[in-house]
Amino acid sequence: MDVNKLLRPHLHNFQPYRSARDETKWQKDTVFLDANENALGSPLNDNLNRYPDPLQRELKAIISADSGLKADNIFLGNGSDEAIDLLIRAFCEPATDKILIMPPTYGMYAVSAAVNNVPVCQVPLQSDFQMNLAAIRKTIQTDSAVKLIFICSPNNPTGNRLADNDIEMLLKDFGGLVILDEAYIDFADRPSWKTRLAEFPNLVILQTLSKARGLAGARLGMAFAQRDIIDALNSIKPPYNVSALSQEAALAAFRQKKRLGQMIATIKSEREKLSRFLQSLSFVEKVYPSEANFILVALPDAEAVQRHLLKQNIVVRNRSAIPHCPSCLRITVGNPQENERLMQALSELEPQK
Ligand code: PMP
């Protein structure tokens, strides 16, 4: 696959922003008078007065060791939301090229497309929340403007993983890029597709430090793909898109392997506990199985339940407005105390016997 052919034409000879430090070999006594920083220091520590490494090399080295992928195959962004936006901006010509999404799914694919004036083809998931491969095939065969297909697995807000066979078929059939968003993969029963990246030149995997790794506040997202795709994203990103504080926090996260495993185990067992509890409630219509850190619940009156919870200062997400998700709440698995409060509050809605 020739990434250049997919790239928007005006980016073929594009000159990215370069800092003087890109070309320099740093030494211990190097004097940095190139970037208009304040050499006297910063309010927090000795390094924050300096711009961070634009290519996040130390962090990529640890992610590379963790993932088994080369640093050249890793892009880091200000949340995976930044990677979603940059993929659209790099590969979709506004008002001409399209992205394909499978609702109900994560809202930012369509929002980023809209911001960039890129039309969206929607091929809804089927009633079992698996993709409609025949309809997707028909769309991509008849509409050559589709450049990117976004797949979210485990999917937000439904919580299920999409079938590996279907993903593989799409990767083989589609001449554009398949963006596989694995934000919730750490909570799933199957491993990431990262190990298969080399097999599929059109595969881009998105992951984030906002979920299992507990760093939503740091804003750090990862994209894994073949080198030409990563180079394209790096060439159009703002130079210092990941702050020094975020890079430091992420380094700490990758060093805490044991803690990660423990947190995932707790979240999964709390998810199962919550799921069983929700199924036991007489006013709950359906509890969807989840391989993520949230549970989708269908209720006859989602809004009333949401209001009741809100009165007790418990915020959940009402997903009823999004297509194919009628009267549903999406409930994030909290810590054990929070989950107790949630269960207590929901119990109050049970009719008294
Ligand atoms: N992808 C999915 C499926 C998500 O649910 C989210 C956040 N809710 C994101 C991406 C964005 O993650 P980040 O915090 O890394 O921007």
Automatic annotation (TrEMBL):
Transmembrane segment boundaries: none
Cofactor(s) of this protein: pyridoxal 5'-phosphate
Annotated catalysed reactions: L-histidinol phosphate + 2-oxoglutarate = 3-(imidazol-4-yl)-2-oxopropyl phosphate + L-glutamate
Stored Pfam families: Aminotran_1_2 (PF00155)
UniProtKB keywords: Amino-acid biosynthesis, Aminotransferase, Histidine biosynthesis, Pyridoxal phosphate, Transferase
PTM sites of type N6-(pyridoxal phosphate)lysine: K211
GO molecular function: histidinol-phosphate transaminase activity; pyridoxal phosphate binding
SUPFAM superfamilies, per the entry: PLP-dependent transferases
Pathway assignment: Amino-acid biosynthesis; L-histidine biosynthesis; L-histidine from 5-phospho-alpha-D-ribose 1-diphosphate: step 7/9
Segments forming domain Aminotransferase class I/classII large: 45-346
Ranges in a coiled coil: none
GO biological process: L-histidine biosynthetic process
Keyword Amino-acid biosynthesis (UniProt): yes
The keyword Transferase is annotated on this UniProt entry: yes
EC annotation from Swiss-Prot or TrEMBL: 2.6.1.9
Subunit structure: Homodimer.
UniProt record similarity statement: Belongs to the class-II pyridoxal-phosphate-dependent aminotransferase family. Histidinol-phosphate aminotransferase subfamily.
NCBIfam families in UniProt: hisC (TIGR01141)
Entries under PANTHER family matching the protein: HISTIDINOL-PHOSPHATE AMINOTRANSFERASE, HISTIDINOL-PHOSPHATE AMINOTRANSFERASE-RELATED
Stated name of the protein: Histidinol-phosphate aminotransferase
